[in-house]
Amino acid sequence: MNSELIVFLVLSLVAVAAALGMVFSRNAVYSALFLVLNFITVAVFYLLLGAPFIAMSQITVYAGAIMVLFLFVIMLLGAESLAPTASLPWQKPMAFTLAAILVVESLYLLISRAKPDVVVTAPDIAVNSMDNLREMAMTMFNQFLLPFEVTSILLLVAMVGAIVLTNREKAGRK
Amino acid sequence: MVPVDYYIILSAILFTIGALGVLIRRNPLIIFMSIELMLNAGNLAFVAFSNMHKSFNGQIFVFFVIAVAAAEVAVGLALIVEIFKTKKNINIDEMNSLKG
Amino acid sequence: MHLSETTSSGFFFLAPWLVFAPLTGLLINVIFSKWFKFSEKMVGTVASLASGAAFVVSVLLAYSVSINHGEMMRWRLAEWIHVGTLNLDWTFRMDSLSTTMMLVVSGVGTLIHIYAIGYMHEDVRFKKEEGRFTRFFIFLNLFIAAMMILVSGDSYMMLFVGWEGVGLCSFLLIGFWYEMDTLARPSWANSNAAKKAFITNRVGDFGFLIAGFLMFWYLGSFQFDAVFEAAPEIAHSQPWVIVAITLFMLVGVAGKSAQIPLYIWLPDAMAGPTPVSALIHAATMVTAGVYLVTRSAEIYTLVPQAQYIVAMVGAGTALFAATIAVGQYDIKKVLAYSTISQLGFMVAAVGMGAYVAGMFHLITHAFFKALLFLSAGSVILGMERGHHHLAHAHAHHDEKPKGKKSKKEDHGHDSHEDEHGEVFDPGDMRNMGGLRKTMPVTFWLYMIGTLALAGIFPFAGFWSKDEILLDASLHFKSVYGQLTLAAFMTAFYMGRQVWMVFFGKPRHDAAAHAQESPKVMTVPLMVLAVLSVVGGALNLPFEGFHNLGHWLGYTLAEVEALPLDLKVAGISTVLALSAIFISWLIYGRNPLKAGQIDPLKKPLGFLFTGMENKWFVDEGYFALIINPFKKLSAFLADVIDWRFWHDFVHDTVILGTYNWLSEVALTQYADQKGIDRFANWLGESTQSISVTMRKVQNGFVRSYALSVMLGVVLILGYLIFK
After folding, report:
1. What is the pLDDT of residues A31-77, one digit of tens each?
2. Is the pTM value of this prediction over 0.80?
3. DSSP 3-state assignment of C74?
4. Cβ–Cβ below 8 Å for C712 and A108
5. Please, which residues have CB within 8 angstroms of residue C172's CB and are 6 or more apart in sequence?
6. Of the CATH numbers 1.10.287.3510, 1.10.10.10, 2.40.30.10, 2.160.20.10, which one belongs to the domain with range B4-94?
7. Judged by CB atoms within 8 Å, which residues 635-694 of C form the interface with B?
8. What chains are in contact with B, requiring at least 3 Cβ pairs below 8 Å?
9. Three-state DSSP class for C418?
10. What CATH number is given to the structural domain containing A39?
11. Using CB atoms, which residue from A91, A99, A101 is nearest to C703?
12. Is C221 in a helix, a strand, or coil?
């Protein structure tokens, strides 16, 4: 029992609670906020795991950009609580069952193959975030240059797509 | 001293919760957010493994996943907005015209 | 090509040329006559030379046999059939009997070939078919070749090959003018006559074959010597076998040599050109039966009962045919029935065991009968020439100023119709008369032939007939009686014929204008006439002069050489002379006038009607055998084959069943109810499954996601439990 473990356990509880809260919340804004909490928790986990760059990019991109976008759209569409409809009545119990089974299965698999003596050690290089960043950059721009460029094209496509998708009315009026 | 497996277990639990959310909720925005949760759980696993193998490959992959997730959210939300304009509500059960 | 074991001198190696010389002549005419455009003379010369070559070979072979003291020689030409225990070869047998036959056939045959050059030259012109000249000589040569095979064969099967071959040639030559009848009108008559000859011969051949089968089965071989060796033992143990063999051979003889009951083809065979009648139906082919019995002497002597039957058949035929000859009006028909009667004499002779007498009569008969037939041909052509002379004279006389010939004259040119529109028959004796003035050479030749046939001393017929009568009087009294009566009638009808044809006044204009025949025809006749006169010298019944008997004795074991019996000879001479006198009384003293009916008709009444109509034998055969047979075959063809088998079994049963199968059974039950149902079930079940399965795609994304989740869970479960 050391401090890392305690921190981990507490934070994991928070993460799981936030996730559950997101799923079961009736209010969409509450769900979004729960998700933000979850993201931040996971960012801390990244820090614990010695990936400060990823942690920061998680917070900025995920929690900062994506969730904000989500909140925009939620506000735009109105977070209406939907009337419970009777379609697919068997869906909910089935989903719960399956999720439970999945949890059980995955836990069983993971625990049976567990290697408890492999512990997380944050390497020295992680303490110095600049080193981490430099090393990551070196790897990315040498080995993973092509995926990097492709990803940038992907982002461009996404941008264009989003604009095109929402632009139809204006084009029609012309 | 946290064993790596704990992180993996956590990742699995988060993933299942995300899957549950996809299955249960009827609001497509919530479903989207559950998908993000699942992606996030996967990222966590990646980073944990990257730590275990003392390699940066996992983290770089997470970097790309985040970028892709962002792009996907942008396009997906645009789509949802468009659908709302047509259907005036965003109950996912209402969008069932592709049936046989 | 082997000689037999004993070395001998002679010309035996020439034996195959007996057959191949005529065949060569045949082939030259077949292949080259059109190519090199042979003239008629050329064709006839080639054929006659071929036949003459066969004669020369026969002479040489006879000479060779004689210098070997009559010893029999064999010459094997080729292997034929060697199957199991059957060994047949094409072997030539040269002994005194076969060389005698060879000489007769080729000698008389060559003379007839030469005669035929002249005869056919005119005949094809009278019938307006010049192109057919060559074919006649091809067939004639073929006949000589086949007859040579017959007489030179060393086994019954080789004999049979020649037997069949001459039967074929007889058919071809009788039906030479196949599209007309004897008066050159378009008709089936000639081809029917040829068919009749062939079919009747076939019945005889059937008997011959049965005899052959019995021979092979019980005696083990066809070869003459082997049969003669094995026969006595079988005659002891199973005599019925030899009796059966001999009697079946008699059936064959009756067919080929025109005995009762199969003689009916020979009178009809007169439809063929006269040289054919002379060669085949007088001198050579019809004697094949006599030769067969003579050759089989060793078998016949084992079974006296069969011999008796042969003799009775011969005697009965002799008498029966002679009666018919009395009532005939056609010059060739008289001679035809005369031939049948004389063949009866020969068959009776060999039946009695008098083989030498039979062969002697065969030879002399060949001479004078050929002479008679060829002279009759000369007479017929003379009548034709006279008729055409008339038609020409009329045409020239009645020519219209414009130069057109009227229809009547055209008729006179083209057919045998004279100016009265009736058909002219050049062979009808009632149209003839007084021909001795217009055709003197033919007249004298005919007289010689008649005297020889009637058996007047010293012509050849006297000696040979007398020998037969002598033998009959000693051993078979009833045969003697029949033959004597037949001899009487022979002289009578020949006298009748001579008076009717050559004496008196011509009863028809054609006879008045008849012309003599050219030398190419009369010279061979003169040769035959000489032979008819001196032929008796072959076997005079005086000690030391039994030349033929001595000669044939080399082959035939026991030959009885009888001296002259003045009683028998005297009786036969008296009867013959009195018959001629009676015929003169009836026909010669008051010659017949045109259109007058036969003077014998009233006194003999129904007898003469029977004689005229050949005792209605043909009609009897038609009624008893042929018409029922036709009815039977019509029944079989129509009812059984066509209506039952074809209509019922094929159409109704088989076709109906098939149609039922295909239309009803297979279509409805198998196809529609069975296969269609299955195929439809497949389609329908696929549809119903798809209708059910379609519901999976309900459009709800959540359910799709659920199924994905389910899949993940299942895979993980599988991985766990692996």
Report:
1. 999 999 999 999 999 988 888 899 999 999 999 999 999 999 988 88
2. no
3. strand
4. no
5. C139, C142, C194
6. 1.10.287.3510
7. 694
8. A, C
9. coil
10. 1.20.120.1200
11. A91
12. coil
